[in-house]
Amino acid sequence: MKLALVSGDGLPVSGLLTIFRNVMETELANEGLELPVVADLGFSWRPDKQHFFPRGSEESTYPDWMSVSTAVPLGAGRADLMRELTWIRGAVARADTLDDEESARLRRAVESLAGPYEEYFTRWFEEHDVDWVCAVNMTLSDAVPVTLGLHRAAARRWSEGVPGGVLFWDHDLFASYSVFEEGARVYPPGPNRFTPLPGTHPCHRWAVVSPALAEEVKEYPTPLGATTVPNVLPALGPEAPPLERHSAFLEQRGIDPDRPLILVPVRVFQVKGVEISVSMFAEIKRLCEERRTPVPCLLVFGSLDEDPPYAQKVVSLVQELNVQDDVVFLDGVPLSSHQDATGQWRPDEIDLLRMCRAGGGAVLFTPNTSDVESVGLGPALAAIAEVPCAITDYACFEDIYGTRSSCVRVSGGKDIPAAAVRLFDLMEKNRRGDPGVREDLRRDKEHVLRSFDPEPWRRLFREMVNEADGTHNDAKHVGPS
Questions:
Q1: Residues 6+ apart with CB under 8 A from 418
Q2: Based on CB atoms within 10 Å of each CB, which residue in 82, 326, 406, 410 is the most buried?
């Protein structure tokens, strides 16, 4: 089976790609998968991710099993294109308020951009002889013309009865992802007449990452239901002595190996609440200095380039709280650990969790909006590393993790000092090997591993491979008309 990936994130590295990495690395030994996976990460249609538009980042490094497209179907350097895509997204979000003239203009704008993307995807599928496309978060209306072009290209390639097609794999949907920019909702609260939905063609399949999203899909005007396929977590392996690259990374960053690492495994994006994590870390630093214990180092996963105005607020807070010598922004955690062109080590999520576990660190997961996370992987990553975690309240937490988690809850700004004390105590007890704390962390890990069972993904993957068997025939290759 030849697999393609189309991601709606428009980022060189994101949580969605990391989860996809976890999925693929459980299946790489499967003889049914032909490598490399060809990928388009959405750089050319996400002008809101301004520093990655239109070809991504020159510094990005991807695993050997992934080949990333740098195609720009509508041409590079077009400021008018950026404005048009941004206008389309906003108009789709407020579709219910558009009059007939505005609706007609939106239709024309969508069609003018959908055509080139239809042709691009059609050629891309043909060039790489693709059997299945995994379309990640393409149901959201970040780029309706691109999604429409994808639907049409898929219908041309996988006409009825031809094996293969598109797996729409959604981590976020309209109602449950209420992101606002400048006071306006980025996405409509539900699908509307402008938003293409999975289910318009027999070649579509649909998977979502939580039961709540599957329930949301039931309200959508489409005959296709969504299967719940939990996210796949990375495999950390057993405790082991520090790897050479771990020691080199710490040395290059000027981090004493005796300092615990506290991880903030999120993007530096407005709804992720990195400012809350920074404030809590400042309290933990104060406690460490009072009690004469090693001050941890805070490692923030995301890139400061994704949302520059928000990033500046976070950096300003770091300086205001005088923790600039203790906070490291990792500029996007890569899918695979490697040395960059300057010789600096860029550890992946797995290596960072291993280092966090080895030093008795912790994880902070502090969204500042309760209704934007569909899963929230921070607590799961803490659990598999068997380290404590602190979280703010967010809507889906108990649906995903139940009530047995030992996470420290942070209910608001005034609660940060008390929550910092609770997390500090858990970290200290864990580092000392306290039996009660260790047992709680072990129990959390077992619960999380059951909740994030990879078997549904394996089953889905096997079904796709079996369906693709024998697809290398003339019927599949429709090609541009």
A1: none
A2: 410
